[in-house]
Each structure stands twice: as structure tokens, then as C-alpha cells.
Amino acid sequence: MANTYVVRFVGGPLDGRVDSVSMPADAPRPTVTHVHLHEGPKIVHHYDLRYAVEYGCEYHLRVEDPA
Questions:
Q1: CA 67 to CA 24: how far, in whole Å?
Q2: Burial classification of residue 32, based on how many CB atoms lie within 10 Å of its CB (0-12 exposed, 13-18 middle, 19 or more buried)
Q3: Distance from C-alpha of 57 to C-alpha of 51, rounded to nearest angstrom
Q4: CA-CA distance, 7 to 49, in Å (whole number)?
Q5: Which pLDDT tens digit goes with each residue over 10-57?
Q6: Which superkingdom is the protein from (predicted)?
Q7: Cβ atoms of residues 61 and 47 within 8 Å
Q8: What is the C-alpha end-to-end distance of the chain, expressed in Å?
Q9: DSSP of 12-45, one letter per residue?
């Protein structure tokens, strides 16, 4: 694929996933939201962008403060 970049997910249900994504016209999204809907209540996870030497960028699971 032309104009692609590789992203890796760290933590949560997407841990270890590596995707090749089309290069966006602007910068990669600072946050990615993953919604889990399988056989139960909706569970939402947020992944925040960080840069990594090995992959270029990684999305790390956001640790939510219990309120």
C-alpha cells in the first residue's frame, strides 16, 4: 500500500494488534475509541497516541480514573 503507516495497540482488548493504516491527510488521530458490544453491556475503551521508535506510533489504553 502506498502512503501507509503502522500502528500498534498496547493494553486492553486490542493489546498486541498491529494495523497498517492509510496515511491521513493530516496527523494521526490523537485518540481512538473502541466499543465492545458482545453479549453484554457496551464497554468503551479509549486509546491515546504515543510515538515509538519501533513502530512510529502506538495507541496506549487510557487508564480512566474511577469517579
A1: 35
A2: middle
A3: 4
A4: 9
A5: 999 999 999 887 766 677 788 989 998 888 888 899 999 998 877 678
A6: Bacteria
A7: yes
A8: 44
A9: GGGTT-EEEEEPPSSSPPSEEEEEE-TTSS-EEE
**Of 65, 47, 58, 48, which Cα lies nearest the Cα of 18?**
58
Cell of 43: 464497554
Mean pLDDT of 1-5: 63
Q: How many CB atoms lie within 10 A of CB 5?
A: 15
- Measured in residues, the chain has a length of 67
